[in-house]
Each structure stands twice: as C-alpha cells, then as structure tokens.
C-alpha cells in the first residue's frame, strides 16, 4: 500500500518509513508527486495535521498520512507548539533546526523550570473525504539541557534530555529513539489503528 506523506521533511520520512514497515506500507513524500505544502492556519496539532492530510490525499488521489509535531515548553505555557518550525524567526534568526535550538537555549538562559515535551499528532485518511480519519498522538516529556548533546536525530533532539535514559534523544541509537520518541509513540498507535480499521479481515474471511 502506498501512502502520501504530507511533508517534505527527510527526517520525518526516514523515521515513519521504518515505523510503518511492518504493515508493508510505502511512504512517498508529497514533493515527489509535485504536491505543494498546505497552509497550517490552526492552533492545534490535530487540526493542522488533518488539513495537511486532506490536501495531500485530494491532490494525489491516494491515501495520505500527515504529522504535525512540535515542542511544548512548560515555562512558556506550552509554546512554541504549532509554531515550532518557525521558532527561531521570532528572534531574528533564519528558519532552521540549529537556529531553533540556539533561540530556545537563549530564551531559557535564566529559567529554572526546564520541563518540556515533544508532541506528535498523526492523521491518516483513506481519501480526501474520509469521514473517519485515524488520529494518534504521542508525547515524549523531558527536560531542556543547557547545551546541545549528541549528533543523532534532528530538530530539538540534541537538547531534549530524557531522565529515564540519562541522555538526550540525539545521544540515543536510532532504534531506541524511534521506540521512545513522540513520533514513535504516535506511529505505534497509528499502526494499531490501521491494522484494526484498514487491514482487518472481514469476519467471514477469518479462520
């Protein structure tokens, strides 16, 4: 089964492709099909993911899956949230992972409450007009470090410290990160939903 991934982020594609492999699902980035990015006007992850999935499904004519994810910092009242990708631009930096990390650490310099969570919401649609979208959410709580640590991953992985491992996401092997990341947790929920709703055999066909 081929699904359009409503994103052009290579990191997301690699993570989700590995996580969806057990279902025999092939993910194709929307850019490879000439699909432009959809606007993301909403203030919640689930609303933006739904908009992106519907857009990709409508243009491609294929089932689609979209991920909207971000960092929710306790000291900032849950922000930057849906604005995570553009966080650095609020402080005069160009958009980009490294600048996002730099801006975050600068804003937290004198803040003692380092609690934060990476949150991922996945939405999957059989078609653009699917009235029953599959929705899965994963949350990975941790603490923001004082400096980047580790070379794996992308985004805020180098500064998201996980107390249960004593390491940041960027210091963990890929398979461990995928098992415990916000996106990994959401993907496991989504796999269960897809098995139940999209791939389950009808009762008369079961042995």
From TrEMBL:
Substrate binds at residues 7-12, 69, 154-157, 177, 182-183. Its cofactor is Mg(2+). Binds 1 Mg(2+) ion per subunit. The keyword Magnesium applies. Mg(2+) binds at residue 68. InterPro entries: dITP/XTP_pyrophosphatase (IPR020922), ITPase-like_fam (IPR029001), RdgB/HAM1 (IPR002637). The active site is at 68 (proton acceptor). The keyword Transmembrane does not apply. Its EC number is 3.6.1.66. It catalyses: XTP + H2O = XMP + diphosphate + H(+); dITP + H2O = dIMP + diphosphate + H(+); ITP + H2O = IMP + diphosphate + H(+). One of its GO terms (molecular function) is ITP diphosphatase activity. Keywords: Hydrolase, Magnesium, Metal-binding, Nucleotide metabolism, Nucleotide-binding. It holds the Pfam family Ham1p_like. Pyrophosphatase that catalyzes the hydrolysis of nucleoside triphosphates to their monophosphate derivatives, with a high preference for the non-canonical purine nucleotides XTP (xanthosine triphosphate), dITP (deoxyinosine triphosphate) and ITP. Seems to function as a house-cleaning enzyme that removes non-canonical purine nucleotides from the nucleotide pool, thus preventing their incorporation into DNA/RNA and avoiding chromosomal lesions. Belongs to the HAM1 NTPase family. Homodimer. This is dITP/XTP pyrophosphatase. It comes from Hydrogenophaga palleronii.
């Amino acid at each position: 089964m081929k699904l359009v991934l409503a994103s052009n982020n290579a990191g997301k594609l690699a993570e989700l492709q590995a996580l969806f492999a057990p279902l025999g699902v092939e993910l194709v980035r929307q850019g490879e099909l000439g699909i432009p990015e959809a606007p993301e006007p909403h203030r919640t992850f689930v609303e933006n993911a739904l908009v992106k999935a519907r857009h990709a499904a409508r243009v491609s004519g294929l089932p689609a899956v979209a991920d909207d994810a971000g960092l929710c910092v306790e000291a900032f009242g849950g922000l930057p949230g849906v604005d995570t990708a553009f966080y650095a631009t609020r402080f005069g930096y160009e958009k980009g992972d490294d600048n996002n990390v730099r801006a975050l650490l600068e804003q937290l310099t004198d803040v003692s409450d380092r609690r934060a969570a990476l949150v991922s919401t996945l939405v999957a649609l059989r078609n653009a007009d699917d009235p029953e979208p599959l929705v899965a959410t994963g949350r990975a709580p941790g603490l923001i470090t004082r400096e980047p640590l580790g070379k794996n991953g992308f985004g805020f992985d180098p500064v998201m410290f996980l107390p249960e491992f004593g390491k940041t996401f960027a210091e963990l092997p890929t398979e461990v990160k995928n098992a415990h990341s916000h996106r990994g947790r959401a993907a496991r929920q989504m796999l269960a939903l897809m098995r139940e709703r999209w791939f389950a055999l009808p009762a008369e066909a079961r042995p």
